[in-house]
Please model this.
Amino acid sequence: MATEIRVPTLGESVTEATIAQWFKKPGDAVNADEPLVELETDKVTVEVPAPVAGKLDSIDVKEGDTVEVGALLGSILEGAAGAASAPAAEAAPAAAKAAPAAAAETVEVLVPHAGESVTEAEVGEWSVKVGDVVKADDILVELETDKAAQEVPSPIAGTVVEIAQATGATVEPGNLLCKIAKGDGAAVAAAAPAAAAPAPAVSGTSMPAAPSAAKMMAEKGLSADQVAGSGKRGQVLKGDVLAAVAAGATAAPAAAPAPAAVRAPSAPTDEVREERVRMTKLRQTIARRLKDAQNTAAMLTTYNEVDMKPIMDLRKQYKDIFEKKHGVKLGFMGFFTKAVTHALKEIPAVNAEIDGTDIIYKNYAHIGVAVGTPKGLVVPVVRDADQMSIADIEKEIGSLGRKGRDGKLSMADMQGGTFTISNGGVYGSLMSSPILNAPQSGILGMHKIQERPVAINGQVEIRPMMYLALSYDHRIVDGKEAVTFLVRVKESLEDPQRLVLDL
Model:
């Protein structure tokens, strides 16, 4: 009985692929799940496994052909007899790849779905290598999306027998990450040396460029040293060539090979002191969103200052009682968040956003709190902060801050904010102009508390002062509204009783 081999689904935005290479030829014995052919798209390479064990009967497309999802690739004659009749020398690679499956049940670890708006991720550092024994829920690898980092745990206890994606590779939900043989110590000896833990792709790989990539490099006059491969084992894909061309790579002179660097160092002696690091997905998104906010919004900033002595005296008086009752320390963010929600009720335009020719007024306050993490700035959201007490706000901010530092923030934690608070004062900033977190229309910048001489009732006193900055979208927020908003925040902080009395 013949079983058809067809092009699998490659992702929502991918409709075709190129035949990169066949691992088998007609008449070869194959085992179930053994890779038969490698397909190359603009984003990733995909290995198509054998659906059944048997003998490869026919190959309907040749290397270099372009095929669509669902197209017929070839067929397999089912049955162990077909597999057994293959020459021993040709069957050896298949036996080596099938050994882990024969030794123990193999479980595939796939790229998880990270949210509706997330269609791809970048493979970060692997925590394991081929041959490592893992327990259930051990972290295997970290995936970086344009919103957050996500750790992928092991679904079972067993041994890592294959790592399918290299660090730096771009993957989509459902793509294979690795395979784990079930059971303690299973299939360690069966792991092939060639399946060692992946390393970032570098030029000069032994893998030949994919057919479509090789054709494009020839057309553009590029050499392999000018293009960094992102495919398996550093293979150069069509997308890599397009990226190199976009980055400014040009045809190499005939007399000498072209340098591998996209940008020449400032001086020959400086080359050894430079380091080129690829931006993470998160950092790329931060850069894009901040620039988009500058290009789209009519952004202005208004400033004021607040005397922090009343809040500091209140904290000093009640901090021990507060922590004992609520189990969390009494910080400044609870007061600032509460002061902001009070001001938003009076000036709703600061809590609104523009959608085309409409203004959407929010009858709730989801306050984003900017948090610096090792991977970049993230803005988790305190939902319905206007309905929360200062203690509840402090608890939620503390929880979100820990999740941010540990890389545990989910997509849901960072969506839906209506206004943002950024505290540059924790890093020593005395004054700055924060950039809007689009599509929001306002962001409050907190700064360092510094003692300064101020006039109080005709007398010069030293007070702990803080500069406040409100950046706002002038398309929707008038100057009078912006200044009034910031004054209301200042009044609430300098007279905390207003927060209690809702004034």
